Fold Flagellar motor switch protein FliM.
Amino acid sequence: MSGEVLSQNEIDALLSALSTGEMNAEDIKKEEEAKKVKVYDFKRALRFSKDQIRSLTRIHENFARLLTTFFSAQLRTYVQISVASADQIPYEEFIRSIPKMTILNVFEVPPLEGRILMEINPNIAYAMMDRVMGGKGTSVNKVDNLTEIEKRIMSNMFDRAFENYQEAWANMVDIDPYLSEFEVNPQFLQMVSPNETVVVISMNTTIGDASGMINLCIPHVALEPIIPKLSVHYWMQTNHKEREPAQTELMEKKLKNAFIPLVAQLGSSEITIEDFLNLDKGDIIPLVQKIDDPIKINIEGTTKFVGQPGIVGKRMAIQILEVLRGGDDDSE
């Protein structure tokens, strides 16, 4: 009961039972303590942690943005693609969830093992093909009657679109995806065993006036070699050691030439709004700081140095007396 939300009537009935003695609070507590068994379905093995699923979601959010740009340029119409969900389910359950006749693209992703399935809802696929052929993007669902020319047009279009998958994974693994199979009936497609765990990335897709889903089915066997890289620790760690010396030198050169505002603060004071409004030429505002006190030198509002005012030639200048260290400033 701890995981359920009770209605007001159920709460009233429970309180009434406790007050009349029909139920004992201690008995309920003992029952809850004794019930420590967690239900686990071996047919739905959860082989990816939430952390890993979040990493996969981030990768495919980037892929969705790349696809949006690619299809917008190719189709010359309004295109919007975004990740709707990321779940791990048995392969059999995924096959049952998609239409009986749909557009299925099977991709090899060497050097990773296994294959990745990209399922495109027929409404979306036909709208894309209509735009490629010079139409307005009208969607007509007739998957079971696809001609050889239509199959070739679709397979070429999605093969070129999937090249963006390489860029989406570039920070984690270097893959070389290519289309290996084109199918319309999921019953004729057996990539892995029915109980194999797969990650399904579902993407909401809008092409002009047509809308539907694009689903990516990724078997566990394909991701197994890179699972350790899907952790937050891997994403957050620095890649400094992996940079080439030339890249590091160029970055340091760019940083050294960057301009930052430096402000020497002579002092500060507080006055009332009335005094401020009545200020006139010749009035004197006393500062909190004494004339022989060092001056604070601020960078982006943070005091980094102290110094004293002076003159170099005919210009006013500040001589740095001390470099301040503290807070998160631990370097030169």
